[in-house]
């Protein structure tokens, strides 16, 4: 299919993809596929004001009715799955299966949020006073700004939007400047759901497209109490303090430097499969991608040999081809950064396998590169940095304590895992003295989390939680209520105040 046919199939009209100021290129071949219209920063106050008035109406709509909108969104996404998945492939360069997987993730979170819309509940708490009852009520917060990244151009928005909407919060979405087309297509799907829903307030879900000035308007506005931002630690270090300084609530999903410990008892064949998917899947451009392999010295050489063999067989090329497993990096800048990191690793004593630019058998114009395995003598500064590319650093260890210390000794704290058949090792890894990450797995790679769990991590990953479990509480305000149904007015803590 040509790029234009993919855009048309996803419902994008000529008016939406031409005549604008934001140029969009496909990572597949670098082709210029659209000129998208940008939001004028001067319009941001009016956009935010629309969101505030939508909030006043939406917060009083019963949550299960709000869930109906998200149910319709899930239905529309099911109908549009193939076309939107193909657009993700065109615009983000993901292989077909991963493009479809991303839309499936959107459908899954819609299902989750529909169920949640009938399960938004608080506690009843025993009061110390006779004839009193305490309880907790969860109320909508207000407009939720969503700043998303190129690598999950639509799923991360849906995690936020599906929860925010059932929680009673309008959404203003600023997608990555690299992926506005998937955002426009998703918004059209959302508009179809809104039309079927019927009486949603105007401005309930808005899309704003553009550069830093657009994001800055959301970050700075007191009328946007929740600001969910996914991206680099550098971006989060700017956004987080600004939102906090105006007493807003930042939800941050920033860098990861995810590790796998492979213990002597591990099922190595299974570990190899998990390593390859999580290190090279999405061309190493997930925040959960495997970046560090901490292998026991007794199996390290064997594991590296198995991995080198597997790496050599991976089909690299056009992500639309059914057999391709590794598509392009998002752009040439990403490839340059990967090559520069490999140079630094070499200078620190690393032995690099792979990591060469691929020009044959791939579409010309895209940034195709063979994934790299890099054996490191120690965990150097370069290893401790997140590089958004398929580089897997290999380190060795003797004792589990040493392995856990290495796993934790990076600034980031998103995802982690251990491959072991030893119960003591597995449980130690999951214990308070184990992994310090928001996600810790056993005999599963660090990437590809299901939407049912809370997603996010500690330290420079930003501390936010999105998606499943009780992450919805981040989109609501908690109110503690004390109700006195007695004819007395006793004070807490036995305080006497008689007059
Ligand atoms: C991201 O890379 O920003 O767990 C999100 C995963 C996906 C989400 C990744 N479900 O890898």
Describe the structure.
The protein is of the alpha/beta class and 499 residues long. It has 2 domains: 3-254 and 465-480, Aldehyde Dehydrogenase, Chain A, domain 1 (3-Layer(aba) Sandwich); 258-442, Aldehyde Dehydrogenase, Chain A, domain 2 (3-Layer(aba) Sandwich). The protein contains 15 helices and 21 strands. The protein has helices at residues 3-9, 14-17, 44-58, 63-92, 96-116, 155-166, 180-197, 212-220, 233-245, 268-280, 297-312, 332-347, 381-384, 400-408, 423-430, and strands at 22-25, 32-36, 124-125, 132-140, 144-147, 171-174, 205-207, 226-230, 249-253, 258-262, 290-296, 351-354, 372-375, 391-397, 412-413, 415-419, 439-442, 454-455, 458-459, 466-467, 476-484. It has a 7-stranded mixed beta sheet with strand order 12-13-14-11-10-16-17, sandwiched between helices. Strands 7-6-5-8-9 form a 5-stranded parallel beta sheet, sandwiched between helices. It is globular and about 80 Å long. The protein binds 2-aminohexanedioic acid. 2-aminohexanedioic acid (UN1) is lined by residues 105, 151-152, 156, 230, 286-288, 447-449.
